[in-house]
Amino acid sequence: NAGVMQNPRHLVRRRGQEARLRCSPVKGHSHVYWYRQLPEEGLKFMVYLQKENIIDESGMPKERFSAEFPKEGPSILRIQQVVRGDSAAYFCASSPPEGSYNEQFFGPGTRLTVL
Amino acid sequence: QKEVEQNSGPLSVPEGAIASLNCTYSDRGSQSFFWYRQYSGKSPELIMSIYSNGDKEDGRFTAQLNKASQYVSLLIRDSQPSDSATYLCAVKGTGRRALTFGSGTRLQVQP
Fold this sequence. Notes:
The complex is a heterodimer. By secondary structure, chain A is mainly β.
């Protein structure tokens, strides 16, 4: 019974490069959430997606960040022109379809380091 | 005022004791409340969810919710050194599916 899968687990980028983080939700889950955890800080919501739709991106920085959850394949969080302040752990979570109480299950995270 | 507040700790308890973790929230319309455990360098792990006023027990864990006081707590009975971790309180706000997290309480269980 596979849980949420994320890759890569660790990603090193130089300033100005692009970072692509991938997330495959629990089988049967149609809701995906991305959270960011800066060093020594709490988890902050970034974006909530369903298949082919961004539902809530209120926590997403306005520039350089984008997310998608295509009909086929994993959800992608893309960070363009990374800066040192983007260094953080990025967690993806998934939850079952509508009607549930929205229990969210987290993947192992991608730890991004920007040099 | 932060949306979800927790005492950062560390909360230190001896092995076998009861650990009591507290959380307050500001959105009075919130309906769903969760406790996650996070070991250092790992991802959050859901340990309890609660939706109605009162107590909910699951093994050594008891979650307590008081919506009138906007207060949720987690009790860990017979604490073990393996319970040493950061405990995150999360709240699903009115009309949203995103979770708002507190900054976490670090629990240390002393052998």
